[in-house]
Write a structure and sequence with these properties.
Elements lengths: L2 E4 L4 H11 L4 E4 L3 E3 L2 E3 L17 E4 L5 H11 L3 H8 L1 E2 L4 E4 L1 H13 L4 E4 L12 E3 L7 H11 L4 E7 L2 E3 L9 E3 L9 E6 L1 H12 L21 H5 L27 E7 L6 E4 L8 H8 L10 E3 L2 E7 L2 H4 L12 E3 L9 H19 L12 H11 L20 H6 L3 H23 L9
Parallel strand pairs: 1-2, 1-9, 2-8, 9-18
Antiparallel strand pairs: 3-4, 5-7, 6-7, 10-17, 11-15, 11-16, 12-13, 13-14, 14-15
C-alpha cells in the first residue's frame, strides 16, 4: 500500500516528506515536465522545480505571538520539512521569514531525491481512483482535466479567483542615493530598501497608475481577486489614500537623511542571499508590461529600473471546502481523497505547507488502519482547518491564518486582560500546549501499516 500525492508545489512535497517520515511509501505526481526537449509549464510557473514560489518569497512574520509565527511554531514542533528548508535558506527580511527562492526549491528537490520512500512521477493526472489513498495538492493552477475530474467526484463546481504576482527589479538598477534601508513596519532589522515619496510624487504616481492600460483579460469572463492580495490599481481605484494606508504605508519608516516620515513608501525585499534582485512588496498588478515599466519607474529610486519579472495575473482555483471536506481534510463522499494547500481553500505559502503536513499525517494514520485524531480547534492549524470546513458555503473565500480564526478567550478573561498583545500571548501559549498534546500521540505511530 502507498499514498498517492498529486502536486509538486508546496503542499504536495510537504505531504510526501511527512508521510515518508512516518513510514509510508509515496508516489508524488507533478504535471510540469519535459516534453520533446521543451519544458511544459503552467501560465504562472517559470521552472520545473518543486516548491517554486511564483509570487512573494516571504513566509510572513516571525514576530513572537503573531498568528503567522504561531502557525510556524506548530509546524516546527511537528517537524515540517519545508519549513526547516525555509529556515536554512532564509534571507534577511526584518521580522519576516523570507527565502532565497532558487535555493529553497533546490533543497526541496534534494531532500525528496534522498528519501527512498518517495517515487516522483512527472505526468499529469486526469483520473482519480477513490480506492487509492490520495492527497490532492495541485494548487491554484489545477489543470482543466483534473478540475473536471474533481467536479465529477464531488458533483460541485469549483470556485475561482485571480491572484497577482509582484514585479522584481535588478538590484544594480536601483538608485541607492534616493532610497534608504529600514525595517518592514519598523520591526526587526533594517533589511528593506525604502523608496520615499513626497506628496507631489505620490499624486503623480497615482494619476499615472489610474490611467495605465490593464493587461488583456478577454479570455476570462470575470475577475474575482482575493481581498488580501489585490492588485495596486484595484486598490488605487478605491480612493486616493488607499495605497498610503496599505502597501505604501510609511508608518515607522522615517527617512534617516531628513528625520521626517515620507508621504508614502514603496518597500523592496531581497529575492536571494546574493541580494542581486528585489521584489516590490505588495505591488502585484495586472497592467500591460509597457505601462508597468512606465508607471513603476515613477517610484523614487527606480527611475532606471531593470525589471527581471513584471507583475502578472494567474488563475487561482479552490474547492468549496465547507460543503465538501470533513475535519480530516478528506471528501465527505470519498474519504480516501484528501485535499491540501490552496486547492483546499487556504491562502498563503505557510498555510499551504501546513495543510500539506497535516494531510500527510492524516494519510499516514489512515494507511496504518487508524482513525486519526483531528487537530484541536485551539491550535492555529486547527483553527485554519475549522474555518475552511465550517465557513458559510455561499460566501466562502480562502483564508490566511489570523487571530480572528483562533478560539477567543473566555469572556471573563477578556474583561480582565485588556491589552491585545497580552491576549494574543495567552492564545499562543494555549495553542502550543494543545498542539503538543495532540502531537505527542499523532506524530509517533505505533501501529503497523496496512498490508
Amino acid at each position: 500500500m502507498m499514498i498517492r500525492i498529486i502536486g509538486g508545489g508546496l503542499a504536495g512535497p510537504e505531504a510526501a516528506l511527512t508521510a515518508a517520515r512516518l513510514g509510508c511509501d509515496v508516489e508524488l505526481y507533478e504535471m510540469r515536465r519535459m516534453v520533446d526537449g521543451e519544458p511544459r509549464l503552467t501560465p504562472a510557473h517559470q521552472t520545473l522545480d518543486f516548491g517554486e514560489l511564483v509570487c512573494s518569497n516571504s513566509l510572513k512574520s516571525e514576530s513572537p505571538n503573531t498568528a503567522p509565527w504561531l502557525l510556524k511554531q506548530e509546524m516546527r514542533r511537528a517537524g515540517s520539512a519545508l519549513l526547516r528548508i525555509a529556515d536554512q535558506t532564509a534571507v534577511p527580511a526584518g521580522h519576516a521569514l523570507a527565502v532565497d527562492r532558487v535555493e529553497f526549491s533546490r533543497r526541496i528537490a534534494e531532500t525528496i531525491d534522498a528519501e527512498p520512500r518517495i517515487r516522483v512521477i512527472r505526468q499529469e493526472v486526469t483520473r482519480l481512483d477513490d480506492n487509492v489513498l490520495t492527497i490532492l495538492a495541485t494548487g491554484p493552477l489545477t489543470s482543466d482535466a483534473l478540475s473536471r475530474e474533481i467536479q465529477r467526484l464531488t458533483g460541485s463546481s469549483h470556485l475561482a479567483f485571480y491572484d497577482s504576482i509582484s514585479p522584481i527589479v535588478d538590484a544594480d538598477s536601483i538608485d541607492m542615493d534616493r532610497v534608504y534601508f529600514a525595517a518592514r513596519w519598523d520591526k526587526g532589522t533594517a533589511d528593506y530598501i525604502n523608496c520615499p515619496f513626497t506628496r507631489e510624487e505620490y499624486d503623480r504616481f497615482l494619476h499615472e497608475l489610474l490611467h495605465a492600460e490593464p493587461a488583456d483579460a478577454k479570455e476570462w469572463e470575470k475577475l474575482e481577486y482575493f481581498e488580501g492580495c489585490l492588485p495596486i490599481e484595484v486598490l488605487a481605484r478605491r480612493g486616493p489614500d488607499t495605497l498610503r494606508f496599505g502597501p505604501m504605508k510609511p508608518v515607522g519608516l522615517r527617512d534617516p537623511r531628513t528625520g521626517k516620515t515620507p508621504w508614502a513608501v514603496v518597500q523592496l525585499r531581497k529575492e536571494n542571499l546574493r541580494a542581486d534582485s528585489y521584489n516590490l512588496v505588495g505591488f502585484q498588478n495586472h497592467l500591460k508590461w509597457g505601462d508597468q515599466a512606465r508607471v513603476l519607474r515613477l517610484i523614487p529610486g527606480l527611475e532606471n529600473a531593470r525589471f527581471l519579472r513584471y507583475g502578472q495575473i494567474h488563475r487561482n482555483t479552490y474547492i468549496c471546502a465547507p460543503a465538501l471536506l470533513n475535519q480530516l481534510m478528506s471528501l465527505k463522499s470519498h474519504q480516501n481523497i484528501l485535499f491540501a494547500g490552496q486547492l483546499s481553500g487556504v491562502e498563503g505559502y505557510t498555510e499551504s505547507i501546513a495543510t500539506g503536513m497535516l494531510a500527510g499525517i492524516y494519510a499516514a494514520a489512515l494507511l496504518r488502519g487508524q482513525n486519526p485524531a483531528p487537530i484541536p480547534r485551539a491550535t492555529a492549524l486547527g483553527s485554519l482547518v475549522h474555518y475552511i470546513t465550517h465557513a458559510d458555503e455561499k460566501n466562502f473565500q480562502p483564508a490566511n491564518i489570523t487571530f480572528d480564526l483562533l478560539e477567543p478567550l473566555e469572556e471573563e478573561l477578556r474583561r480582565k486582560v485588556r491589552d491585545k498583545k497580552e491576549r494574543h500571548r495567552i492564545q499562543c501559549e494555549r495553542a502550543l500546549a494543545a498542539f503538543d498534546r495532540w502531537g505527542s500521540e499523532q506524530l509517533h505511530p505505533q501501529t503497523e501499516l496496512r498490508a
